[in-house]
Amino acid sequence: MANTSTRTLRLLSLLQTHRYWPGTQLAERLGVSVRTLRRDVDRLRQLGYPVEAQRGVDGGYQLAAGAALPPLVIDDEEAVALAVGLQAAAQGAVEGIAESSVRVLAKVVQVMPARLRRQVEALRAMTVPAGWNGPAGAGADPGVLTAVALACRDSEHLRFSYTAADGRRTDRHVEPHRLVCLGRRWYLVAYDLTRHDWRSFRVDRLTAPNGAGSRFRPRELPAADAAEFVRSGLDNLPRPYRVEVLVDAPAATVRERIGRWSTVEEVDAEHCRVRITADSLDWPTMALGVLDADFHVLDPPELLEQIHNWGARFTRA
């Protein structure tokens, strides 16, 4: 049987992983009697954790919401995920939380074990914020993400398997440069030693990263920064729709509303030209709808038909 302090922390961790635990099952997981479990629950309550008990044959315990936030127990992967999430919030566009996110991130990293702090610091140092959000994409494996970040930070050659959009799988040997979080996806910008050119790789398509152990002298990136390199590559991808619209509003006003997802060119003081590339017309239609300004569709003709259909549906509503 573990000592009391260790067992109490284990109990807290279990209570945080499930909404409700039957008493007998919880005692079995801890390797103690039901009576000892009750004493451990009482210790948590004395420390300020609001543990609720349900009596009876099927009685059990659950951690309720309290008036104050008590200390949390998290594992290694959760700690790294928390730090990465706080980093994203600190760099994000949600007003009012950036400063507090930085404070919490500093506290979390400060108390982390050295092995975890090294991973988080590598992610923080080797990630370039891109400044806009698109539709949610596939998530990157935390282990892959941290391994790539460490290779970027240490200028260490990296080998991995990569699956292209058409499903073709290849082995890559690269000089990793930076990680970029763009459109809710992670990208690795690296110099491909096989193809002798710069490439960007989606991290969610990257598996089995392995540092080769050898270091390299960083090359000069052919772009202002890694985020710009990824953006330019995405802009050059073939997409079904290229939207072009004239908007009866100043360019500065339009940029403020949809500039993160489009190219806005000033025509004169009261008009601008907007270009959007998209896989479907749904997003451009919604973007134009939030402008609160008149506009004239130049291309494609299908967008006019979609706007008419949406308008008729809204009118019927």
TrEMBL record:
Residues 4-59 form the HTH deoR-type domain. Keywords: DNA-binding, Transcription, Transcription regulation. Gene3D superfamilies: Winged helix-like DNA-binding domain superfamily/Winged helix DNA-binding domain. The keyword DNA-binding applies. This is DeoR family transcriptional regulator. The keyword Magnesium does not apply. PANTHER family: PROTEIN PAFB, PTHR34580.
